[in-house]
C-alpha cells in the first residue's frame, strides 16, 4: 500500500491535510537563483547536496540553473535521483559492504557517478567491484579537514590517491574536503577560521600529490554555512551546499555572511493542525516526532507571536500560549519552521508546493528512507 | 520508485544491507506470549498499540494470541492496518480536520473503528461527518489522567460523554485514560503513584456518568511501563501497551515491575556497518539520524564492551572505542539498541525478521510515514 498525498493540486493551503511538508515556491525559487548568482564571479562549480531534499524535481531545477550535478550520501539515494532524471551524482561518502558495492557499480554504468574513500581496504573493495562488473569508477579521496568524523589526514590521503590511481577499474577524481562541523558555528569569524584550516589541509595534500606527479582535478566541499569561503579560497573547485534551498531554524540562528543579499529565506514548513485545546494556555498540534526532526532543537511557530512549541512526543506537539497572545483555536492550521530540514524532509513522502496560498504541485520525496 | 528491501529471506544476518531494522524472532515471540500470559488472571482485555510497530504482520500475531484489536494514532495508520487485515482499530487520539473526518467515516464502514474526542466542537464535527456518510462512530472521551497533554478533566469529560450520547451518528463507547507521562518514570513506586491518581480521575468521572445515567462500558489506557497497574486497578477494562513487543534503550532504563517473569526482552535492533576507521579510538557507522531516532537518547551498542555510540549526524554514527576494547574493523556489522522504538521504526520501510542468524522473512512497515 502506498500512502496517499495530503493534498491535490489546486486546493487552498488551509485545506491541506496535516501534518504536511509545505514548500513555499516563491522563496524557494529566490533561494535557487541567489545561490547561482552568488557563485557567478567565482568560477567555482555548484553541486548542491540532495541529501537535504531527496527530491528529483528539486535537483532538476538546480541543474537547470547551472549546477553541474548533485551530491548524495547513499547508493539508494543515488538510484532514486538517477531514476528521476539526474545524470551526474557524487556520493559524497564512503560505500562499504558487498551488496552496496554491487549496486554502486551497476549504477555507474547508467550515470556519471563518483564516490569517496578514506581507507585502503575500501579502495581495494571498490577496485574489485568495478573490475568484476567491467565498470570504471571515479573515486575522490576524503580528507579530514577538521570535522573529526570520516576522512584521512593529508599524508594518508596522498597515499590513498596513489592507491586509487594505480587500481584497475578506478580513476582518481580529486579530494572530498567537507568541513561539516563548521556549518553551524554561529559567527562568520569562527566559520572563516575553520575554513582557513580546511584550506591549509587541502593545500598540504595537493602539494604531496604534486610531488608524486598526481594531478588533483577537483576539490569539493562546503555547505550552506560556509560555501562562499570555500569558493573564495582559490583551492576549492566545487561547492556542495544543500540546505540553502529549504533552510531551517538552526541555520536561522547563524550570523549571516557579510553580503546581505546572499541571505536565504525559509521556504520549507510543516503545516500542523490544532487538535486539542485542553487549557487556556495550552494547545496541542498533530505534528510530533514522526513529522518533525528535533535533533537541532524544537520547531518554531511561524508568524504567531507569543505561541511556542515546547514539547514533541511521537504524534503530538505541545504549544505554550502567552496570556497576551491571540490563542489558536481548535482546527486552526499553523506553519512550523523545522529545527533541521534534512531529517524532517526524510519523514515525509510528499512535498506540497504552494504559491499564493494554493497548492501548485505535489512532488514525491523519492529518496525518502533511502538509507542504505 | 519503491525502495528495495535490504535483504532477501534465507540470507545470513551478516549479508543484510545496512542500516536495517532487525527483529529477532525468538525474543519477539516470547514478548508476545509474556504479555498475553501476564493478563490472563486479570480479565482485562489487551489492545496493543500499533503506533510502535506500524506493521500489520505484527498486529495479526498479537490478535492471534488473544488481543481484542489494536490501537493507533492516525487515520492513515488505521487505513494501513485495516488494509493489512486488522478488523478492529481504536484511534486512541483526536481526529480534527475535514479531510481526516471524511476518511475516518469511510473507514468506519469497512472495519470496527473507534475514535477519541476531548472538545465539544470536535464532537459536533464527528457527528456531522458520521451523519453525512450515513455511518455510526464509536467515540471514547479522552480524560486527562495526569499527563497534561490532551484530554478533558472529569467534569468536562462527563459533559462530553453526554454530548456524544445525544449526537446522531455517534455512540458513547467509554473513556480513554492513558497516562503517557508515567510510562518512563524510573521507579515502580513513582509509576504506581501516578496510576493511583489516574484511577482516581477515572472513578470521579464514572461516578459523574452514573449520576447522569450513562453507562461506561470501557476504560482503556496503560502502556508498557504501567499496564499491570491499570490491569489491577479494578476500573480499567482494557490496556494498550505497544513497546513491549520490540523494547528500546529508554524502557531498558526503567526499574522493572516486581514480577520478574514479566520482563520484556530487546527484540528490535538496527544493524549498521563500520564505514570508516579514521583513528584508533574512533569508528564511524553508516546509521545516523535518518536510521535511528535520538529523542530519548543515543542508541546502545549491543554485545560489544567498551564501544559507545557518542554522536549521530544525518547519515553517520560516531563510535568511541576504549583503549582496552576489541576495536571493530572496517566492514564489521554491529547491532544497535535504539533509544526509542516508535520513531525509529517509522524511519524504515522493512522489518528484517531474523532467527538463528538467518533472515526468515521481510515484513513491510505498512504504516511508516502514515502521519495524517
Describe this structure in words.
The structure is a homodimer of 372-residue chains. The first copy, chain A, is of the alpha/beta class. Chain A contains ten helices and 17 strands. In chain A, the strands form two sheets. In chain A, strands 1, 10, 11, 12, 13, 14, 15, 16 and 17 form a nine-stranded mixed sheet that branches. In chain A, strand 5, helix 5 and strand 6 form a beta-alpha-beta unit. The mean pLDDT of chain A is 96.
Give me the Rg of chain A, rounded: 22 Å
Summarize model confidence as the mean pLDDT of chain A.
96
- Low-confidence runs of chain A: none
| Separation, N- and C-terminal Cα atoms of chain A | 22 Å
Compact overview of the structure:
Chain A is α/β, with parallel strands linked by helices and 372 residues long. Chain A has helices spanning 25-39, 56-64, 75-83, 98-108, 120-133, 154-166, 188-211, 227-231, 249-252, 341-345, and strands at 20-24, 45-46, 70-72, 88-94, 112-117, 137-142, 170-176, 219-221, 238-239, 268-279, 282-285, 300-301, 307-312, 317-321, 333-337, 350-355, 358-364.
List keywords for this structure.
homodimer, alpha/beta, eight-stranded parallel beta sheet
Write the layout of secondary structure elements.
The structure is a homodimer of 372-residue chains.
Chain A: E1 20-24, H1 25-39, E2 45-46, H2 56-64, E3 70-72, H3 75-83, E4 88-94, H4 98-108, E5 112-117, H5 120-133, E6 137-142, H6 154-166, E7 170-176, H7 188-211, E8 219-221, H8 227-231, E9 238-239, H9 249-252, E10 268-279, E11 282-285, E12 300-301, E13 307-312, E14 317-321, E15 333-337, H10 341-345, E16 350-355, E17 358-364
Parallel strand pairs in A: 1-16, 2-9, 3-4, 4-5, 5-6, 6-7, 7-8, 8-9
Antiparallel strand pairs in A: 1-10, 10-11, 10-15, 11-14, 12-15, 13-14, 16-17
Helix pairs in contact in A: 3-4, 4-5, 6-7
Amino acid at each position: 500500500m502506498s500512502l496517499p498525498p495530503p493534498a491535490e493540486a489546486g486546493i487552498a493551503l488551509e485545506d491541506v491535510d496535516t501534518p504536511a511538508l509545505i514548500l513555499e515556491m516563491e522563496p524557494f525559487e529566490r533561494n535557487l537563483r541567489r545561490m547561482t548568482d552568488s557563485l557567478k564571479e567565482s568560477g567555482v562549480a555548484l553541486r548542491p547536496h540532495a541529501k537535504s531534499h531527496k527530491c528529483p524535481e528539486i535537483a532538476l531545477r538546480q541543474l537547470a540553473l547551472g549546477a553541474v550535478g548533485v551530491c548524495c550520501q547513499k547508493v539508494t539515494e543515488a538510484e532514486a535521483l538517477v531514476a528521476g532524471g539526474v545524470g551526474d551524482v557524487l556520493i559524497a561518502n564512503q560505500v562499504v559492504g558487498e551488496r552496496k558495492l554491487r549496486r554502486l557499480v551497476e549504477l555507474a554504468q547508467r550515470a556519471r557517478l563518483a564516490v569517496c574513500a578514506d581507507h585502503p581496504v575500501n579502495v581495494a573493495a571498490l577496485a574489485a567491484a568495478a573490475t568484476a562488473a567491467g565498470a570504471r569508477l571515479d573515486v575522490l579521496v576524503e580528507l579530514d579537514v577538521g570535522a573529526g568524523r570520516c576522512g584521512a589526514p593529508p599524508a594518508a590521503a596522498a597515499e590513498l590517491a596513489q592507491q586509487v590511481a594505480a587500481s584497475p577499474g578506478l580513476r582518481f577524481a580529486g579530494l572530498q574536503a567537507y568541513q561539516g562541523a563548521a556549518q553551524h558555528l554561529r559567527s562568520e569569524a569562527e566559520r572563516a577560521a575553520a575554513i582557513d584550516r580546511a584550506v591549509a589541509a587541502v593545500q598540504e595534500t595537493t602539494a604531496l600529490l604534486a610531488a608524486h606527479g598526481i594531478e588533483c582535478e577537483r576539490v569539493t566541499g562546503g555547505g550552506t554555512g560556509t560555501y562562499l569561503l570555500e569558493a573564495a579560497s582559490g583551492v576549492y573547485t566545487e561547492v556542495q551546499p544543500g540546505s540553502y534551498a529549504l533552510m531551517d531554524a538552526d541555520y536561522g540562528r547563524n550570523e549571516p555572511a557579510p553580503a546581505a543579499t546572499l541571505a536565504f529565506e525559509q521556504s520549507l514548513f510543516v503545516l500542523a493542525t490544532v487538535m486539542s485545546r485542553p487549557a487556556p494556555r495550552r494547545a496541542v498540534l498533530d505534528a510530533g516526532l514522526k513529522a518533525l526532526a528535533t535533533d537541532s532543537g524544537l520547531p518554531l511557530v511561524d508568524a504567531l507571536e507569543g505561541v511556542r512549541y515546547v514539547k514533541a512526543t511521537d504524534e503530538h506537539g505541545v504549544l505554550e500560549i502567552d496570556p497576551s497572545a491571540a490563542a489558536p483555536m481548535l482546527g486552526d492550521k499553523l506553519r512550523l519552521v523545522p529545527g533541521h530540514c534534512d531529517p524532517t524532509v526524510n519523514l515525509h513522502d510528499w512535498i506540497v508546493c504552494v504559491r499564493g496560498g494554493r497548492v501548485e504541485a505535489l512532488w514525491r520525496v523519492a529518496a525518502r528512507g533511502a538509507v542504505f
